[in-house]
Amino acid sequence: MASSLPSVCSLSKQPLIRRKLGKHHQVRYQIFRYEGNSGNNIVDANLSVLRRRIEELRKKERLENCCKVTSGWNYNSAGGYQKKRAILVESIEVLGSMSSAIGLVLLSGSLSIFFVSFLAHMCT
Known about the structure:
The structure is a single chain. The protein is 59% helix and 0% strand. It is mostly helical. It is elongated.
């Protein structure tokens, strides 16, 4: 019975395969200096110029949109407070019309029940 079991030592071991590593490329870097300034200062200067130009364009667009009058609805002319107030007034009007419709239904239902019961009481 001992001979029927394979022993651990008798198993053949496969040789380890080593992968060949490719040649590494040499990485070079250069530091560019322009008139004594580092590249970061140039990038920061360019970003500040871009920010100023963007701000100027925003101001120009605000002035153009403010003074421009178009036919029809002019949504840009109303301020934030006026828009919120208009929405609030409109929602109150909608709630009022809904409550009046529900009240009318309840009143007409109550009156019809009253008349039906009144007629039934008079007939008996």
